[in-house]
Amino acid sequence: MDGVADGDGIRVGSATGRWVILATVLGSSMAMLDSTVVNVALPRIGRDLGTDLAALQWTVNAYMLTLAGLILLGGALGDRFGRRRVFVVGIVWFAVASLCCGLAPNAAVLVGARALQGMGGALLTPGSLALIQASFHEDDRARAVGLWSGLGGVGSAIGPFVGGWLVDGPGWRWVFLLNLPLAAICVPVALRHVPESRDPAAHGRFDVRGAVFAALALALVTYALIEIPAQGASAVVVGAVVAGVLLGAAFVRLERRLADPMVPPSIFSSRQFTAVNVVTFCVYAALGGFFFLSAIQLQVVAGYSALGAGTALLPTTVLMLLFSASAGDLGRRIGPRVPLTVGPLLAATGMLLMLRVGPAASYVRDVLPAVLVLGTGMVILVAPLTASVLAAVDTARAGLASGINNAAARAAGLLAVAALPLLAGMGPEAYRDAGEFASTFRRAMPMCAGLLVAGSVIAWWTVRAPLTPEPRPACATHCGVSAPPLEPERGSRHT
């Protein structure tokens, strides 16, 4: 491992450790922030650019699509060419794409720039956690991951607040332009203080075809879900569904045949890993749908300003900031089963409490109880969810496991934003009509809560192992996205 000469790794309490945490959290928070910060700006974007609900869905989903489809390829590039190097390239790419978003003259340019943002996010997101895993001392990794996931969760949760302040102040374009000064801080910190690391066992060709197949399959299914309300079961929509399913099947077949696939099927031989990824999909689909719809509900139906809507969700941020690291430690001591069962149930309760939010809703009586319960559930589940994914596989595959889990989370949010308006019966102009949006919101929230309950049940019945890595299979190989070595391997080469 380059940059850690003594072979023991960095300690969390050291000056270098704090710089590494700052750089990785700041970089990953840029990507997480743009997953949620745009939601509170959507009504204003729609009004200023004259778009319908479908264009607003694409404003969110273009970013999620390229991020989900390319995140594993981004992890592979980091393992091969240096995780810090690819992380920094991703930050610069993300900043340039953010500038294009801020200057977009119409919805089509904005959607295209958002897709470019997702590509940058696919480079920096897997690198952030891989750098944490590769840099820190073994005894400090659990706490470092807890700090990373907790502070990163804060970055995601604070998005609506920051977005509301910017939308009501200098304007929605600054939601994107804010990334430029963040990148200007993150890049020099990473170059100066973060040790470089790579996987010397990374080999073979990059699975570019797999990445393209996965991204196109998601894009076509997403297109069909978004366009059905306007086009119905037209030939174009049906063709998109069929093509998306066929490309998905081709992706699975390709991964089974390649020597170095992007998603090696062998990693799913871990029952714990498979179960936790299913729980991840349920949780992040629910959260993606919730944050997309609730930001509009608070503005269009409850009459809040953009800043008021963002501030309404701020207690979630405070809870994540105060207790996520402790939740990570608790999950390490008692195992992931209880946190991954209780956390989603509490979050589901919070979403159901949002049904009380209607015209002229009282913040203290109607909104605050919902976000407090939701935030408590998120605190309990987020850090143990991340840690249990990493612990479910051999340490040499931690980077691969993290990439797959990230892709599952992003794809879940993408499909939820595309499907929920359709399932709830939202028309193309629903966000302009308070009555129509309120009725469809009341149908959508139980669906989000149901996803969380499903995740809780799956966790209870399938998750058993403590947060310690499983023994390495004798035939384990580095495939596609090679994992960061958590410590230098002594006396052997992994081939």
UniProtKB/TrEMBL annotation:
Gene3D superfamilies: MFS general substrate transporter like domains (1.20.1250.20), Multidrug resistance protein D (1.20.1720.10). Pfam families: MFS_1. It is a multi-pass membrane protein. The chain crosses the membrane at residues 19-42, 54-74, 86-105, 111-132, 144-166, 172-194, 206-226, 232-252, 273-296, 302-325, 337-355, 367-392, 404-424, 444-463. PROSITE patterns: MFS. It is found in: Cell membrane. InterPro entries: EmrB-like, MFS, MFS_dom, MFS_trans_sf. Residues 20-467 form the Major facilitator superfamily (MFS) profile domain. Keywords: Antibiotic resistance, Cell membrane, Membrane, Transmembrane, Transmembrane helix, Transport. This is MFS transporter. It comes from Streptomyces halstedii.
